[in-house]
Design brief:
Elements (H helix, E strand, L loop, with lengths): L1 H16 L4 H16 L6 H10 L3 H24 L2 H11 L4
């Protein structure tokens, strides 16, 4: 969270001026940060799971690898189909007539 808080002050004006939807960018950042949380060697969630399960780090990293692959696929889906990320918020913004 600290990484996102520190970098958003710099990135938000750049993203806004580039014309990127801020909701899409927020969802994209959440997915990418979560990918970082389960990627060795500094994935914080791996250390949490190691403390909870008392398994070795290699076992936990191998167990988390399928989730990492799913998130990589999700990043590409968000890039190629950005309307997926903004469909629900845009439908909630519309006022029924």
């Amino acid at each position: 969270i600290s990484t996102v808080v520190l970098t958003m002050a710099v990135l938000e004006p750049v993203v806004r001026s580039a014309g990127i939807d801020l909701i899409w960018f927020g969802i994209f950042i959440v997915v990418v940060v979560e990918m970082a949380q389960i990627t060795p060697p500094i994935g914080f969630n791996l250390f949490v799971m190691q403390g909870m399960t008392h398994h070795e780090m290699g076992f936990i990293a191998r167990a988390a690898f399928p989730m990492f692959l799913i998130m990589v696929v999700m990043v590409f889906v968000l890039i190629f189909f950005p309307d997926i990320a903004t469909w629900l918020p845009e439908n909630l913004r519309q006022v029924p007539q």
